[in-house]
Amino acid sequence: MEKLKNYIYGEWVEGNGNGIPLYNAVNGEQVAISDTEGLNFEQALDYGRTVGYKNLSSMTFYDRGEMLKKVALYLLERKKKYYDLSYKTGATHVDSWVDIEGGFGTFFTYSGLAKRMLPNTPFWVDGDTQKISANGTFLGTHILTPSEGVSVQINAYNFPVWGMLEKLSTSLLAGVPSIVKPSPFGSYLTNAVFQDMIESGILPEGAVQLVCGEPGNILDYVQDGDSVLFTGSATTGRKLKSLPSIAGNAVRFNMEADSLNCSILGLDAKPGTPEFDLFIKEVRNEMTTKAGQKCTAIRRIIVPENLIGDVQNALSKALDQTKIGNPLSRETRMGSLVGKQQYDEVLRKVNLLKAETELVYDGKHELVDANYENGAFMSPKLFLNDAPFTKNISHDVEAFGPVSTLMPYKDAEEAAALAKRGKGSLVGSIVSHDNNFVAETSWKMASQHGRIFVLNRDSAKESTGHGSPLPTLMHGGPGRAGGGEEMGGLNGLHFFLQKTAIQGSPDILTAITKVYQQGAEKKFSDKHPFQKYFEEVEVGDSLETAGRTVTDADIVNFSNVSWDHFYAHTDATSLTGTIFDKTVAHGYFILSAAAGLFVSGKKGPVIANYGLENCSFFKPVYAGDTITVYLTAKEKINRGVKGRNIPSGVVKWLVEVVNQRDEIVCVATILTLVAKQSPFIDLNLKNIQKALSGLTESTQPSWGKMSPQQMIEHLDHTVLVSLGEPEAEKCFTPEEQLEKWQDSLYNHRKMPKDFPAPFLEEDEKLLDLRHKNLEAAKQSFMDNLKRFVIYYKENPEAEHMNFVFGKLNKEMWELIHKKHFTHHFEQFGLI
């Protein structure tokens, strides 16, 4: 039987012990052996701290985000084999989708957050700058850097893929190397995904390691700066937290433990209401998804005392309709537990519950294409605790399977009190259409819950469900749930980052943070900042504008245009007792006038106004005052661009408006989208003529078999096609792929050197020369290029067919010509 290999210190290493046999949860056949005997864990941790930390921490947050996306795409292409393995863990197709593609989705989410919100630097400026001196020459702020250590991540058996990727999404994005230790059960699935992550070559050396099997003494070697993330039982988690190596060192510890989560049916949600039906469906789903093996599953069903019978009957019928058996069968809606060992443990907990509460539903025991002897199947079990304030077993014992307990309550006060008797939960849900009931219950139970999920007819269609942790929201909970926090959007990175206060002068803080600080030196130049591409803009680039004297007519006209007739702008007789001496200019007029002063009217790289932040008005501006603006590049944010958008970044500009007395009257931060420099030649006739001057009959291509004249005539033909001379008869790209191909015209990726044009069936089609020599071909090409420019000025709405990209408009033809010309000019070394 194959042993699962471990991946440590950059090598695939097999344990040298007997290992743990791993079985198919459905039919009992052995799948693999996990073994960590003989591994050098001390060396593995040291390798992560040195090689892994150096490689990961030197990357920028933006680049790490791009890395997550590439890994997720690579794994997504190979998902079928993961599903084939997931079925062996007892998971149905839906269960597997949550685990596998849910895991990939977490990587995608964090990649998107990074590319929208994190800097293109290895550090992250956190929060606003604090002015800590009277004159602003001494400032303070905070930066976040990767914690200098390795993260040991111990995962549970219920989600072999999501469990790993959910933790890695934040640690890798933070720049901290990780050692993944999945539960042995189901680790063959984790191992398969991990192998592909390494095979992709996307992750830097030392970024991740994998230990498949018993953890051995790995935690004996953690030290200051390291972190441990644990998902599993609260009992085990507390033992790990108290280990001398963890408790005695500055080791960060995060625990996400199983919890006795509840769902409350509102007093208003009687049979016949949408909420009653939603409640039954939600509880049924949470009891049967992953066969109840979810840390977020509903264990306690809290119901108005007069509805206990109705809920019991409706839920029993719903569970009766849930067919149990082989996950590969289309009929199956619930699979098995992950193994016989887990089955025995759940059965032990079921017997504990039986000692104090009544088993009122034990399910149908027929299986689809499976049997109880070989597989780890268990029917859903529903208990009734008729006195939940005196019988405590339901609030203390969790059977980690398809097991839940009904319990009655009288009012919102009791419902919240029962919810809190779980002593700390990952999630509690309320199903009700009564806003007052929901609000009162939520406030009272919130202190003992990491998440509160409210479901009713208004949100049902788009709801993600009680049991689904989301990357953008915190996953964790107080008390029994472990007291930890995972994910939660960018907050999830803070666990892995060191926060450091930085103090100094405005120039020093600007140099350290790469964010311009008010009072730092400005850099003036003859070139207007709005005429610079994203790559050319430097933090501190500044512009001082001419002055503008505000007039009474300005104030009146702005009132009429904006319809802002607030008395301070229009009625001089109503100013007694106000802060104004006379009618004052609108704040938004000052901002608009400032924009009029600092914008560049000439077309340039600035694409659009992207937003406005932190706008403050400090002094009134009256008619007769003269304002001047200082515009300074404050911060640059790289930006991932999709679809038909011009590759660009966001530049934040500090706008300081001063009056004739050099007093600051307004400060704001405006955001602009600024185009990135295109790597392609512009359709400037002089530039193209100049490039072609270096092309002779003897010029040799760097790749391909074209002669110089063949290349020029090939480009000339493409220009003619863009004029409809001749009109291309068809597009060879399949319709379903056309949008993707057209979108690709907008990015800055160059054409591949070996791109086979689908309309060229054989090389000879390129060989029919139309001109007597190269010079004549060049002249024809330039003449037709001039015609192209004139044609689309006269016919801006014209569209013509392209063989590969379909029907293209003026903008698209310009983009394709830029890419195409660059491709062949580089082929012959002309640019």
Produce the secondary structure layout.
Layout: E1 3-4, E2 6-8, E3 11-13, E4 20-23, E5 30-34, H1 41-57, H2 61-76, H3 79-86, H4 93-117, E6 124-131, E7 139-146, E8 151-154, H5 162-174, E9 178-181, H6 187-199, E10 208-210, E11 227-232, H7 234-241, H8 244-247, E12 252-257, E13 262-265, H9 274-288, E14 300-304, H10 308-320, E15 324-325, H11 340-354, E16 358-361, E17 367-368, E18 381-384, H12 393-396, E19 403-409, H13 412-420, E20 428-431, H14 435-445, E21 452-455, E22 474-477, E23 484-487, E24 497-504, H15 506-513, E25 523-524, E26 541-544, E27 548-549, H16 552-562, H17 567-570, H18 587-598, E28 606-617, E29 626-637, E30 648-658, E31 664-675, H19 685-692, H20 708-722, H21 735-744, H22 774-794, E32 800-802, E33 806-808, H23 810-827
Parallel strand pairs: 1-5, 8-9, 8-11, 9-10, 11-12, 13-14, 13-20, 14-19, 15-17, 18-19, 20-21, 25-26
Antiparallel strand pairs: 2-3, 4-5, 6-7, 7-24, 16-18, 22-23, 26-29, 27-29, 28-31, 29-30, 30-31, 32-33
InterPro entries: Ald_DH/histidinol_DH, Ald_DH_C, Ald_DH_N, Aldehyde_DH_dom, HotDog_dom_sf, MaoC-like_dom, PaaN-DH
Protein name: Oxepin-CoA hydrolase / 3-oxo-5,6-dehydrosuberyl-CoA semialdehyde dehydrogenase
Region (Disordered): 460-484
Give an overview of the whole structure.
- This protein has a seven-stranded mixed sheet, with helices on both faces. Strands 25, 26, 27, 28, 29, 30 and 31 form a seven-stranded mixed sheet that branches. It has a five-stranded parallel sheet with strand order 10-9-8-11-12, with helices on both faces.
- It is globular.
- The longest helix is centred in the N-terminal third of the chain and has 25 residues.
- By secondary structure, it is an alpha/beta fold.
- The protein has 23 helices and 33 strands.
